[in-house]
Specification:
This protein has nine helices and two strands. By secondary structure, it is mostly helical. Strands 1-2 form a two-stranded antiparallel sheet. The longest helix is centred in the middle third of the chain and has 25 residues. The protein is globular, with a radius of gyration of 18 Å. The protein starts with 6 loop residues before the first helix and ends with a helix.
Amino acid sequence: MDGDVDVTVLSAEASVDSRPANGPEANRTVDPRLEIGRKFTHMLPGLIPFIMWWIYHEDPMPLWNLGVVAAVVAVLTLYVVAHPQGRRRGREENWPRTCLTYGIPPFIVLALFPGQAEYAGVVLCVLAFGDSAAALGGRLFGKRPLPWNPRKTWMGSLCFMLLAAPIAILAYWGEARPAVSWSAAVICGTAGAVLGGVAESLPSRIDDNLRVSVAAAVGVVVAANLV
């Protein structure tokens, strides 16, 4: 009957994206203050590329250097997995997967391109700042849903790109060795941010962190080899 509701179907649809939409409807189910705290924590790792400006590291990074980075990523990831308080959105969220898909992809980019640490810097910045901006911007200001994904809004996607792009540009410019022109940094950082924003907006069963990281990596690597 048309009036019947298939609970199984609703459950399946809800599982497509365990994160709440970045639109205003999310305000009814999530405490905004808690969400702001979560997103602030989410953004903190994005400061790492800028901290690295002041720490000497060889270019390309030798294996021992990569080993140190891998150990730090592993320790921090395991700590956050074991201490989800104030970070985890709800019981429906696959918390270990969320943590792993946040920390591992940027390191993989660094391991694949040890002579271009700026690639990993862009990926980490896009993931840290773009995803947070999309959630908060959409939650606070989002009115119009995206036609291809009603769980996301135009404002959320716009906030993603507007915040992620300048930070990614700065991270690329500051880490690139040898130094690159400002225009090259703009192209590479923007490419990573735009593709990451598009990936974040798509309806998909693939974890947001993984989608954004892969898209940002493709954007910055392709752009860097074209400029």
